[in-house]
What we know:
By secondary structure, the chain is of the alpha+beta class. It contains 4 helices and 9 strands.
Amino acid sequence: MKPTVRSRRRRPSGARGFTLIELLVAIAILAVIAVLSWRGLDQIIRGRQTITSAMEEERVFAQLFDQIRIDARQAASDDESGQAAITVSGSVLQIVRQMNLPATAPRLQVVRYRVSEGRVIRYASPPLGNVGELRRALRGEEGEGWATVPLMGGVGAISARVYVPKVGWTTQMKDVQSAITENDNNLKVPQLGNAPLPRSVTGLEVRIGAKGLARPVTRVFLVGE
């Protein structure tokens, strides 16, 4: 018997496999593309997080300033509160405001803004129906019956100043008291006796410094308007 001769299949002359160097070059190129893609995706994610954080801070700022605007617009007059309706003492802003509840006589309310452990907190007294309750709320600390609402975190400081006609912007409460005294004296003038007592404070400026801000954010509000 003749030995069986197996035919060898020859590759076409134009077809061949990748060499080791070619594979290494291809892998290196793919690795570079993967790194660049990852960096681009990481930048997109970081940018999205930054935008989301900025939008959240803007929303919190808007909520805080909107509440201060409402309190300032509803500020009581000086004769209703028996003193300046808006006072500034250190990092504490206090507003005596009107409070109109359905089917009840108008009441007053003492509102304070202060920073506690890096957070702006709004303290609001219960409705005050007489002068005695108002005096106790003005002299005392926030206690039972007071509503506490945290408004904004990450705050380093809160400061305010008031606008007094004929004086301008000031942080000195003695300027406010002088304006109240002058307004009271004007009531003794016959021509002005029937005129309403003017406000000693007609404007409020609030400045808040927060972490991550290059400079404090400032807003100005009208009082009783």
